[in-house]
Amino acid sequence: MKRMVTLMRRAILIPRPEVALSPWPHPAFSPNRTPAPPFTGYQARYLAAKQGKPPHGKGKKFHPKPTKTEKLEKQEVEIKQHMTVSELARAMNKDIDHVYEALLNTEVDIDDLEPDAYLEEKWIKEVVKRSGMKYKYARLAEVKVRENKDAQRQPPGDPAKLVSRPPVVTIMGHVDHGKTTLLDSLRKTQVAAMEAGGITQHIGAFLVQLPSGEKITFLDTPGHAAFSAMRARGALVTDIVILVVAADDGVMNQTIESIQHAKTAKVPIILAVNKCDKPQADPKRVKEQLLAHDIVCEEYGGDVQAIHVSALKGDNLMELAEATVTLAEVLELKADPSCLVEGTVVESRTDKGKGPVTTAVIQRGTIRRGATLVAGKTWAKVRFLFDQNDQLMSEAGPGSPVQIVGWKELPSAGEEILEVESEQRAREVVEWRAYAEEQDKLKEEQQAIEVKTREHQESYRRERESLAHLSWRQRKAAMYRANKHRMSQRPSEKTESDQLTMPLIIKGDVDGSVEAILNILESYDAHHQCQMDIVHFGVGDISENDINMAETFSGVIYGFNVEANKPIQQMAAKKSVPVKLHKVIYKLIDDLKEELSSKLAPIIQEKVIGEASVLAMFTVTVGKKKVPVAGCRVQKGHLDKKMKFRLTRGRDVVWEGSLTALKHHKDDVQSVKTGMECGLCLDEDVEFKPGDDIVCYEDSEVQQKISWDPGF
After folding, report:
1. Localized where (predicted)?
2. N-to-C CA span, the chain
3. Which of 506, 503, 504 has the alpha carbon at shortest distance from 561?
C-alpha cells in the first residue's frame, strides 16, 4: 500500500508526456508537499503499460485512447429526412446496390424498393452504420410557406352591368339517333356526311342565328359509348340540354347516360323525338320509356317540352328552336361583358400552321387579341381568334364559341380559362399550380409508402414470430436460407420477367379523342394474359420522336384521326415499328384487341376425327415376336393411320400414341370409315379388353383471344 501511494505521488509530481496532470482530490497528496526522491525505473514501467496488459497482473485491462495517427477517420455522410435510395447512394459515394445489400435481413422489402423510393430515417441511419460510416444531418434551408398565387374566379358582377347572352345548348343522345343531322339542318351544313363512320367523334361548338334574330350556341357531343367524358364535359358547360331520341329506336344506353349527365349538372332538358317521318316511328312509346328515368313530358303533367322533329326533312325545327329560346328567356341568362374573361375549354388540338388551338365557350367578359389567359398549367397570349368557320374574329363575348390561338402548350379539354393582368402574372399562376400539383403528388406517394411499409413490417413481424423458438444462430441460418435468392444477384442485375407486354403510343387529333381512348384502355383487365403499358400519348400527327420511342420500347403506335407523312412511314418501316391509323374509334379498339391476341401463344386444341370400340383381342406372330391386335368397329367418323390415337377404359386413359399397323380384313389400309371393322396394332404392348374405346384425334394450334371486353 505504501509503495502504491508513492507511485501515485510521483505520477502526479513528475510531468510525463504520456499523462496529463490534474490536481489530486485527497489532502494527503497535496502538490505542496516536498517531492520524494526520483524513482524513474518503476515509475516508467507503470506509465508505459502495454495495451491489454493489466498493471502488476491485477485489475482490468488498460485501454489507452488511440493516437490520432492510429485512428481511422470515418466518412461523414450528410443525411436528411425523406431521402430516396439513389440520393442516399450518392451521399455515401456508393452505387445503389450497396444500399440494397445493407438493407438485407431488415424489415425493408428490397424487392419492392425502387431507386426513387423514399426511406425512413431509421433505415437511412442503419445503412450508414452498416457501411462503417457516420452520419450528420444536413443543414436545412429555411422553408418558407409559399403564398398562394393561383388565379381565382371573380365574384358576381354589378347587376346593372349584366346583359343578355346567347344560351349554350348541348345536343345529347344515343349514337346514330340524328344529333349531328339535326344540327346540320339548323345550320344548313353537311357535317354528318363528312364524319368518319357517320358518327360524331368530337365535341363541336357552333353559333346558330335563327331567322328571328336570336342566337344560340350549340355543342354537339358524340353518342358513342367511348365518349362518355366528352358528354359529361358538354353537360357541365351548358345551360340547356336537348335530348335527341329516335322515334323508331327508343331509349338506349347512351340516352340514359345523357340524362344522368344532365341531372348531375342540374340542367333543364328539352326532348327532341327525331325520325318521326319513318313508318315505324312511335313517339308515344319513347315518352313512356322516359318516364322510368324521371323525364316527364308536359302532356303527362311534367315540365319537359317534347318536340316531334325530322332532322332529315327539316320538320318542326323552328318549333324546337323557339322552345329553346323560350326556356332561355325563363332562365334569364345574363353576363358581364366588361369584366375579365372566364370560359371553358371544350376541345383542344394541334394545328400544323397555328400550333396549339382550343375551342372554348366564353362565360363572362369579352376576349380580344392580346389578352393573357391561363388554363390548367399553361397560359396564352392570344394571337388570333377564329369562329367555327375559321373566319378571323376581333372579339368574342359571353355565350360565344371561339377558337383561341397562342397557347404555349396544349391545355386539356374541360380546363377553366381565366384572364390575368400580365404575362408575369400568368407565369406565377402556372408555376404555383405546378408546385401545388407536385406537393399533392408527394403526399399521395408518402401515404402509399407508409401503407406499404406497414404491410411489410407486419409480414416481417410474423416471420420473426415464427422463428422465435430458435436460437439466434438457428434464426440467422433460417433467415439466410429464406433470403438466399435475393443475394444471388444484385437488384440492379435482376432479369426481366417472362410476362408478355405490349407498349403502346397513342396519338389523337384532339385532346378529347385521346382522353376517350385512354378511358377505354383503363378498363383493360387482361394483364394476366398480356401486360399493356402506355408509354406515351399526345395530340398531333405521328412524329419522328414517336417512332424512336416505339423502337426503344418495341411498341406499337396507334393514331386516331391523325396522319403519318411519307418520310415518317418510311422511317417506321425501316425500324420495323407498326403504325396503325384509324378514323373510327371502335375499329381502333378492335385492331388493338387483335394485336393483343397475336401476342398470346397459341393453344393446342384436340379435334376428334373418329371413334371405335374394341370387339376382341388376338395375337399375331411377326418374326419371332407375338404382337397383340385389337379387332375394332368404327362407331363414328373415321380412323386415319397418320393421326394420333388414344385407348380409354371407362374414364381412364390406358395408352396414347400412334399405330404401327391398320388392316381391313388382310389388307393394309390408310383409313377406315364408319361401320367398318378393322384390326390395329399399337406402338406399345398394351393388353386390350372388349369394350375399350379407341379415339383417333389430331392436335391443332388455335390462336388465343384476349379476354378484355371494352364494353362495345
Report:
1. Mitochondrion
2. 103
3. 506
The average confidence (pLDDT) of the chain is 80
- Give the Cα separation of 622 and 620 in Å (integer): 6
Q: Long-range contacts for 642-645 (Cβ within 8 Å, ≥24 apart)? A: 642/670, 643/609, 643/696, 643/697, 643/698, 644/696, 644/697, 644/698, 644/699, 645/680, 645/682, 645/694, 645/695, 645/696, 645/697
DSSP string computed for 284-349: HHHHHHHHTTT--BGGGTSSBEEEE-BTTTTBTHHHHHHHHHHHHHHHT-EE-TTS--EEEEEEEE
Which residues lie below 8 Å from residue 152, measured CB to CB, with a gap of 6+?
Answer: 418
Pairing of strands 395-396, 401-407: unpaired
Could you read off the pLDDT of 8-45 as tens digits, one per residue?
Answer: 444 444 344 443 434 444 444 444 444 555 444 444 44
Identify the burial level of 530 via C-beta atoms within 10 angstroms of its C-beta, where 0-12 means exposed, 13-18 middle and 19 or more buried.
buried
Domains of the chain: 76-137 (no CATH), 163-335 (3.40.50.300), 336-466 (2.40.30.10), 501-600 (3.40.50.10050), 603-703 (2.40.30.10)
- In 10 A of CB 529, how many CB atoms? 19
β-pairing, 168-173 vs 215-220, is parallel
Q: How confident is the model at residue 342 (pLDDT cuts 50, 70, 90)?
A: very high
